[in-house]
Amino acid sequence: MERLNWKENNVFVTGATGFIGSHLTIALNTLGANVVILKRDYNKNSLLELTGEIKNVNIAHGELEDFDSIYRLLSEYEIDIIFHLGAQAIETTSVVNPKKTFESNIKGTWNVLEASRIISYENNRIKKIIVATSDKSYGPSEKPYIEEMPLQGETPYDVSKSCADLISQSYFKTYGLPICISRLGNVFGPGDLNFNRIVPGTIKSIIENKNIVLRSDGKHIREYFYVKDAANSYIILAENMERKEILGNAFNLSSGEKMTVLEVVEKIKKSMKSDKIPKIMDTTKNEIRIQTLSTEKARKMLGWKPSYTFDKALPETIEWYKNFLSAENN
Looking at 231-292, which runs of residues are DSSP E strands? Predict the structure, then answer.
C-alpha cells in the first residue's frame, strides 16, 4: 500500500492536549501534516506543551459541546482528515458527574459528525474520520471482545462510549461519511497524569516513597497497550482508509498481553527495585472484572500489530515519570 502523503492534508485532532492525543499529534507533526487542534483549557503539563510541539500546530479555541465552533473550524481550516479523540476520559469522574461526561462524549461526537456531514454535503472535502471509542463500549464479557459483539456499556463512562460508537456507525450507514472506529485497550506510557490509573500511580508512589494503594482487589484482568503503539495504530488505520472496504469498520487495537493489576504492580516493582507491599483497598464498584480484546481483524485487514511489549515499554515510561516528577518538585 502506498503511504499517505500527510504533508498534503489538513488534519483536525480533538483531544490533542490529552494523553493519547498528544502522542498522536506529535506523530502527525513528524509526518509533516498540517495539524489543527481544538483547545479549551491551558494545561502546562500536557505532553504537547512539555515537548514544545504545541508550537507546531494551529490552535482553535472552543469545546466539543459547541457545534458552531466545530463547524467553523472544519470550514475555515479546510479539514481533510479528522481524528476524534476528545472526551471526558476518567471513569471515576463520570460517576461523580455523568451529565458532563454524556455532554462531552456523546454530544461532542455528534457535533463533530454532524458538522462533517454538512460540510461533506457542501464540498465533499472531508476524506477520513477516525472516531476513538473504547473497549469499555462492549460492557461486561467473560470472553475476549470481538468487533461483532453488541455494545452494552452499563456505567456512565461505558455507556457514553457505547453511544459514541453507535452514533458513528449510524453516520456511516445513513450518510456515507468516511468513518472508522477504534476500540483501544488500557493505554499507558509517558504523559499520563491520571495517577489514579495503576501504571502512573504505582510508579509515582515508588518514586515518592509512598504506599502503593490499589482501589480494587488487584485481580481485575486488563490488556496494557503502550501509547506509542496506540498513536501509530491511528495513523495506520487512517492510511488504510484509502481502501473502500476498510470504511465503516470498527477495529480492536491492543497489546494482547493479559495481566492482573497485581501482576502489573509486581513488574513495576521489579523494574524499580522496590519491595513495597501494595495496600489493597478493594473499594471499587461496578468495574468489569475481565477485559481482553481480539485484534485479529486489525492484523488481517490493516496488517497492523503492536511494536511494544509491556516489558519493553516500561523502562522509558518509568524514566519519563522520574524526569517529570523531579522537574515538578524543583
Answer: 250-253, 258-260, 279-280
**Is 113:70 a contact under the CB 8 Å cutoff?**
no
Contacts of 266 (CB under 8 A, 6+ apart): none
Please tell me the distance from the alpha carbon of residue 75 to that of residue 80, in angstroms, as a whole number: 10
Q: Which CATH superfamily is domain 6-185+227-254+293-307 in?
A: NAD(P)-binding Rossmann-like Domain (3.40.50.720)
Residue 89: count of CB within 10 angstroms of its CB: 22
Nearest to 188 by CA among 268, 74, 114: 268
pLDDT, one tens digit per residue, over 151-160 is 999 999 999 9
Q: Is residue 308 flagged as an active site residue?
A: no
Give Cβ neighbours of residue 225 (< 8 Å, ≥ 6 apart).
184, 185, 186, 187, 188, 253, 254, 255, 306
Nearest to 43 by CA among 21, 12, 28: 21
Report pLDDT digits (tens) over 86-128.
988 777 777 788 898 999 999 999 999 999 999 988 888 899 9
Indicate which residue of 157, 226, 234, 308 is catalytic: 157
Q: What is the DSSP string of 62-90?
A: --TT-HHHHHHHHHHTT--EEEE--S---
Indicate the pTM of the whole model: 0.95
Q: In the chain, where are the structural domains located?
A: 6-185+227-254+293-307
| Contact (Cβ atoms closer than 8 angstroms) between residue 204 and residue 195 | yes
